[in-house]
């Protein structure tokens, strides 16, 4: 995302991770573009901010996959 104006802009980002119905992480981040900036990339800020959330989602998906495999294994043993 690029800011093409000369006026500073204020950005606020709020994200929440819930696992099993419980909030495990809540992050709020705010920043202003530097004064006099004609073009400003916010990707670096967003990627740093989002990283913990993507890591948590990856862990959740791995846990879900492991549970499915365990369930299949247990079902095969009972046959």
| Largest sheet, spatial ordering of strands | 1-2
Coarse morphology: elongated
Total DSSP helices = 1
Cα gyration radius (Å): 20 Å
Biggest sheet features: 2 strands, antiparallel
Task: Report how far apart the termini are.
Answer: 55 Å
Number of domains: 1
**Portion in beta strands:** 25-35%
- Please give the share of residues in helix: 40-55%
What's the order of the H and E elements?
Answer: EEH
Mean of residue pLDDT?
A: 79
What does this structure look like?
This protein is an alpha+beta fold and about 80 residues long. It has one domain (about 10-79). About 45% of the residues lie in helices and about 25% in strands. The protein has one helix spanning about 45-79, and strands spanning about 10-20, 20-30. A two-stranded antiparallel sheet has the order 1-2. The longest helix is centred in the last third of the chain and has 36 residues, at about 45-79. The N and C termini lie far apart (about 55 Å).
């Amino acid at each position: 995302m690029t800011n093409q104006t000369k006026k500073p802009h204020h950005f606020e980002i709020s994200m929440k991770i819930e696992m099993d119905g419980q909030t495990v992480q809540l992050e709020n981040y705010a920043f202003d573009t530097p004064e006099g900036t004609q073009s400003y990339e916010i990707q670096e800020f967003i990627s740093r901010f989002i990283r913990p959330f993507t890591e948590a989602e990856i862990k959740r998906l791995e846990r879900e996959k492991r549970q499915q495999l365990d369930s299949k294994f247990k079902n095969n043993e009972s046959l």
